[in-house]
Amino acid sequence: MLSVKGIAMLIGLSGLTLLAQEPDETIVYKKLEDVELSLHLFYPENHQTSDKRSGIVFFFGGGWNGGSPSQFYPHCQYLSSRGMVAMSAEYRVKSRNQTTPRECVMDGKSAVRWIRLNAKKLGIDPAKIAAGGGSAGGHVAAATGTVEAFEQAGEEGSVASCPDALVLFNPVFDNGPKGYGHSRVKDYWKEISPLHNITSSVPPTVVFLGTKDQLIPVETAKRYQRLMEEKKRRCDLHLYQGQAHGFFNLSKGRDFYVQTVFEMDRFLCSLGFLTGEPTIRSLIQNGEK
After folding, report:
1. Fewest CB within 10 angstroms: 102, 127, 243, 277, which?
2. Global confidence as pTM
3. Structural domain boundaries enclosing 131
4. What is the pLDDT of residue 284?
5. Looking at the 3D structure of the chain, how many domains does it have?
6. Band of the pLDDT at 10, cuts 50, 70, 90?
């Protein structure tokens, strides 16, 4: 028998409506002089703080200018149904906070560090924390796993801000002279560009990209994968023919949301973050009966 959360998921995926379930909890993870930033948390059913589950935090897209944590509510909803503690993070953006991409990355690192620091209270395994995101949020996630700079002053530096896996949807990889957003980071692009900071310690990564993405060239993703492999790091690249930027969002349609979530699930299973077979296709099939 499906839980209330499961029914909400099924209704949303069946195409009857794009129902966005609210988070189970919202917790402030970072306080600054003029702003508080929160994590929007989705818990597995019957979750206990004594559990030791894997966790994932998502960062929304929006060009470092705007956006909302609700973009990744469907992903969080699904992953919580599979047994993960799934979170969507607020972070500072230009439209609301007059900030630069530098602060976006700082907040991403703060979020990962806060989750690891509070893993026991959240019922999370501190060694199984993934970060994900789309577009500029994909850049934030990728930067938490690649760049060494942009740590928030005053935080517990002995606790790593690097996640244990990366789940990236049409991410901004390249901030170089020919890459996305270079004019906004030109004074420090070498420090903030994930493509230019790949080392032998970058977490295993999965990437989803449409071949008609107007912002992220396929060749950039292939180069990223190649550089990862040269460092003996895992980078699974899934290309979707004819798809444009943002194709993976449930708001853009069900099919590619399902396809990318299915592969995300398989990737996380391969790392031991999840167990069993992906359930998203069976949810769809059951919902259409």
Report:
1. 127
2. 0.92
3. 4-288
4. 54
5. 1
6. very low
